[in-house]
Amino acid sequence: MPTNNLNGRSRRLRNGWPVSEINEPGWVYTLHFLVPLGSPADRRGHAQHYTGWSGLDCLSGRLSAHWDGTCGVRLVVAFRRAGIPFLVASIEPGTRALENRRKLHGARQRCPVCQGIADAGRLLTELEAAPIMV
């Protein structure tokens, strides 16, 4: 899980945030950063995705704040300071409860950008292994 502490328990479960308006409808979105930040050798030491929530009427403003680095999210600000841009990988209607569930399970398995890269890699491998017909 991406939010584990040293004991292997999720900080989000322990802290139980966000506590207010957990069932308010809005948008759950995932950002895919073009380059991972941190050490890829350490499973918990690098990141390439951020999942967040926005109210129904302020999604574009929230995404703009992420792009500008004025959102207040430490991870996103770190990517911005490193000059690493992002793609909006997915947007779906949902509540903060859905955002919490998405964050607890990580983004790599459900990120369409990562899936496309993996599919392209598999296709390339198959093409390289295929016999050449003349």
What do you see in this structure?
The structure is a single chain. By secondary structure, the chain is an alpha+beta fold. The chain has helices spanning 11-15, 59-68, 74-81, 96-104, 112-129, and strands at residues 26-38, 46-55, 86-94. It starts with 10 loop residues before the first helix and ends in a 5-residue tail after the last helix. The model has no long low-confidence stretch (mean pLDDT 82).
Topology:
Elements: H1 11-15, E1 26-38, E2 46-55, H2 59-68, H3 74-81, E3 86-94, H4 96-104, H5 112-129
Antiparallel strand pairs: 1-2, 1-3
| Helix proportion range | 25-40%
The chain-level structural class is alpha+beta
Work out the count of structural domains.
1
Q: What general outline do the C-alpha atoms trace?
A: globular
- The helix count comes to 5
The percentage of residues in β strands lies in: 15-25%
Write down the overall mean pLDDT: 82
Could you provide a short overview of the structure?
The chain is an alpha+beta fold and 134 residues long. The protein contains five helices and three strands.
Which tags fit this structure?
alpha+beta; single chain; 134 residues; three-stranded antiparallel beta sheet
